[in-house]
């Protein structure tokens, strides 16, 4: 394993275990560091806790006493732990750096890193980029926010292997020296303000993806996102734009006939099977990153002619009695649902609702022209009902949950209707994750008679 040469800390607090904390603690112990672990929910009997104790970690479980900071030089924080956590706040007051395990992964990776972030589209773009490289016979591994801990993959990476990382704002907020060879910025809009507190904090976290890049690196960015255009002026990297509207002689673009990279035609647009304008943005970003990493046109064509979407992200589920069911459970905000609604030119029955974060839904109004009915659930059902009335939708139903919503939507549907789960809300009022919500939708569709 590569040594952590540029990691000048010997006494480290790993705050929060879960998968990323366990991986970070294990790696740091393997590197000969002194590691203290603090987790409120972990138990001495947990398998990962036992293993870390055997490796020499100091464990403080069940609470967050301030004494965990005694003698500590740096905190490796689980991304899910807020910055207003008392331990984090106290550390910052003492001048103790707070990082995430992505910082460790970046230092351990021997091969080039492709880092992908944005408010929407990260998982689709990460998956497309990875598959394009695989189909081009380029060595590649994938990790990060996609569900695979980056440190575990990075420490076993060969120098000729690419590492494609999906990166959230939670992860990027805690980086210091992290530097991808290729950074991809898909888009940015207001999100996760309950965590970041301000719009400025959120943007800055996203922009950390390019803050350490040099003229030898690349920044692939959305040329139609005005916020990004202003921000990337600070970047020293070579800038590679992508656009669904205009030719980009230095980047990726499309017209009515084909998609291109710079002046080179990559493939016919009619042969791409993925739906939605937003997915064309994801495709162009992937093409840019993949071509910069040596992908072939043949490899890209093979992926785009077969790829129908990532699970829970405008995923086609089934054609049942001429009704088309789509699972877009990952749509946890209005922008994602806007993009889903824009993907169809046929009647839609919209299934929506979830955690109430205090926001309204009027920004969906211009995108409701194909919505013929709504089936609503969760804490925001009444707010979404108001939206439906403003859109003059006469058939609006409020139901118990996603499972009952599928049945009600089917009962009021007709042939050629799209029955679309695109909640525009987080799932946590009724479900542990958006994945659980989507899986329940899929199961309910498959059990229709």
Automatic annotation (TrEMBL):
Its main location: cytoplasm. It comes from the Bacteria. It is found in: Cytoplasm. Cell wall formation. Catalyzes the addition of glutamate to the nucleotide precursor UDP-N-acetylmuramoyl-L-alanine (UMA). Residues 312-425 form the Mur ligase C-terminal domain. GO terms for molecular function: ATP binding; UDP-N-acetylmuramoylalanine-D-glutamate ligase activity. Residues 116-290 form the Mur ligase central domain. The keyword Kinase does not apply. It comes from Virgibacillus chiguensis. This is UDP-N-acetylmuramoylalanine--D-glutamate ligase. Belongs to the MurCDEF family. GO terms for cellular component: cytoplasm. Pfam families: Mur_ligase_C, Mur_ligase_M, MurD-like_N. SUPFAM superfamilies: MurCD N-terminal domain, MurD-like peptide ligases, catalytic domain, MurD-like peptide ligases, peptide-binding domain. The gene is murD. Its EC number is 6.3.2.9. Pathway: Cell wall biogenesis; peptidoglycan biosynthesis. It catalyses: UDP-N-acetyl-alpha-D-muramoyl-L-alanine + D-glutamate + ATP = UDP-N-acetyl-alpha-D-muramoyl-L-alanyl-D-glutamate + ADP + phosphate + H(+). ATP binds at residues 118-124. GO terms for biological process: cell division; cell wall organization; peptidoglycan biosynthetic process; regulation of cell shape. HAMAP family: MurD. Keywords: ATP-binding, Cell cycle, Cell division, Cell shape, Cell wall biogenesis/degradation, Cytoplasm, Ligase, Nucleotide-binding, Peptidoglycan synthesis. NCBIfam families: murD. InterPro entries: Mur-like_cat_sf (IPR036565), Mur_ligase_C (IPR004101), Mur_ligase_C_dom_sf (IPR036615), Mur_ligase_cen (IPR013221), MurD (IPR005762).
């Amino acid at each position: 394993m590569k040594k952590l040469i540029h990691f000048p800390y010997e006494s480290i607090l790993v705050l929060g275990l879960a998968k990323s904390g366990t991986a970070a603690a294990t790696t740091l112990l393997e590197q000969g560091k002194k590691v203290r672990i603090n987790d409120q929910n972990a138990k001495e009997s947990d398998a990962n806790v036992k293993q870390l104790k055997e490796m020499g970690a100091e464990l403080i479980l069940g609470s967050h006493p301030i004494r965990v900071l005694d003698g500590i030089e740096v905190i490796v924080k689980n991304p899910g732990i807020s910055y207003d956590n008392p331990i984090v706040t106290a550390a910052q007051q003492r001048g103790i750096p707070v990082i995430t395990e992505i910082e460790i992964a970046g230092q351990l990776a021997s091969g080039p890193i492709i880092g992908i972030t944005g408010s929407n589209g990260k998982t689709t773009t990460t998956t497309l980029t990875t598959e394009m490289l695989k189909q081009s016979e380029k060595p590649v591994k994938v990790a990060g926010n996609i569900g695979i801990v980056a440190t575990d993959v990075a420490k076993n990476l060969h120098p000729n292997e690419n590492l494609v990382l999906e990166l959230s704002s939670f992860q990027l907020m805690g980086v210091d020296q992290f530097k991808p060879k290729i950074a991809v910025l898909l888009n940015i809009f207001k999100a996760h303000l309950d965590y970041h507190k301000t719009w400025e904090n959120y943007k800055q976290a996203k922009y950390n993806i390019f803050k350490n890049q040099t003229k030898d690196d690349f920044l692939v960015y959305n040329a139609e996102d005005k916020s990004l255009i202003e921000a990337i002026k600070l970047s020293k990297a070579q800038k590679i734009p992508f656009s669904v509207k205009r030719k980009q002689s230095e980047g990726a673009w499309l017209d009515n006939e084909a998609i291109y990279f710079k002046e080179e035609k990559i493939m016919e647009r009619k042969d791409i099977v993925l739906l939605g304008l937003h997915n064309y943005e994801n495709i162009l970003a992937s093409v840019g990153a993949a071509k910069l990493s040596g992908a072939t046109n043949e490899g890209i064509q093979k992926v785009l002619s077969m790829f129908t979407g990532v699970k829970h992200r405008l995923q086609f589920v089934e054609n049942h009695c001429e009704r088309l069911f789509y699972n877009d459970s990952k749509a946890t905000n209005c922008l994602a649902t806007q993009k889903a609604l824009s993907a169809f030119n046929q009647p839609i029955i919209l299934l929506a609702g979830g955690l109430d974060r205090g926001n309204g839904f009027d920004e969906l109004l211009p995108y409701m022209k194909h919505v013929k009915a709504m089936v609503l659930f969760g804490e925001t059902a009444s707010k979404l009902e108001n939206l439906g009335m403003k859109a003059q939708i006469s058939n609006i139903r409020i139901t118990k949950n996603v499972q009952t919503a599928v049945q009600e939507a089917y009962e009021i549907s007709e042939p050629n209707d799209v029955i679309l789960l695109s909640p525009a809300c987080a799932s946590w009022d009724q479900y542990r994750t958006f994945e659980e919500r989507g899986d329940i939708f899929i199961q309910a569709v498959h059990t229709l008679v």
